[in-house]
Structure formats: C-alpha cells, structure tokens
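Board work, copied verbatim: Regulatory protein RecX
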Amino acid sequence: MTRRTEWPDSAGYGAVGDAENRSGRAGGAAPEGGAAAEDGGGPLPSRAGSGPPRTPEEQARAICLRLLTGSPRTRRQLADALRERGIPEEAAEEVLARFEDVGLIDDAAFAGAWVESRHHGRGLARRALARELRTKGVDSALIDEAVGRLDPEQEETTARALVDRKLRATRGLDRDKRLRRLAGMLARKGYPEGLALRVVRRALEEEEGEDPEMLDHHLPDA
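↓ predict structure ↓
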C-alpha cells in the first residue's frame, strides 16, 4: 500500500509520495522495513543481521529518506542535515542531485505548497511567507513565483477575516486602542501598513459606524 507523507502542522498540502518506494531510483535500492530508528541517519533495518549503510552515499540516502518520510524538505534543509551528521560534501551533493532528478526534492513545489498552506491556515501575508521561505533556503526566484500566486484581493480578504475574528475581543476599548491592536495583529502577520489600516477602518465603520477620518492614523512604532 502506498504511504503518503503529509505536511506537518497546518500545512496539509503537497505530500511527498511513498519516499521509500521511489528511492530505488534515487541511487540505490530502498531499504526494507521502514524508517530509521533514529533521526541521525542510522540504519533502516529490515531483517535480522542487516547492517548499517557502509558508504557515505548510502548513509546520505538513509538520512534523506528518513527526513522526507517525516515531511517535505528543501534541498538546503537536507544539505544542512547531512553536514551536521558528518556526511562528506561530495557524497551529499551526489545524493541530493539524484533526489532532485527523481522529484524527491522539489523546492518550487515546496514553496507553492507552503504559501497555500500557511496563508489559508495561519493567515500569513506575502511578506511573512517570503521571510519563512528564505529561512528554509528556497531560492529568491522561486519565492517570488510562489508568493506571486497569492493575489492582492485574496490577501485583503484574508486580512478582513482575521480582523472580523478579533473584533469582539476589542469591544469596550477606545477607538485608538482598537485600531492599534487590530492593525498591529495584521502587521505581525506580514500585512503592509496601508492595507492593515484600510481593512481595520472598514471593519470598524461597518460594526460601529465610525467616521473614517477619525481612524486615519499610522501604526505605532514597534
């Protein structure tokens, strides 16, 4: 039966399909019997008496498969893991290149799925999503392409939904405090100041009939 590995947390998009079954095309036969007992690139035992991988390439394959079975990873994340475990750079590059060839590593797909998931799951805006992808080592061009699929209208719709969920919690506060709290919440999720103020102002107008001129303030300094 094919086993699919889903995104962790709220990121429920873009599974890496059946990593062990495909590893035979990734430079060697897939070890039988499942994932490694430890995350440190240890053996993937199948039968009594089977030994650990003997070459750096075999060790690198085992480590990568173990990590990809847990969740999709970028090439840099896997490269960092191999380096931390003492895999020689030449062996690591060979295995990573092979995994890219067969589609087990796909940074473009990773970035697209990450944007889709984190926007809908956490309400993050393009700026915050780009920042997260940079920390995972995704190339700038791939980041631009992925966040570019999130159009401004969708971003504003999501911002409004976030504000609507928080409006009730701000009732009883004065106007300025409501504005700062709600706009600050959007700013922390990566929304630009102008968009944040516009969305909050409109929400308050609809709820309380506020005068838009009275709400035309700037976000406070962090």
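The CA atoms of residues 112 and 132 lie 12 Å apart.
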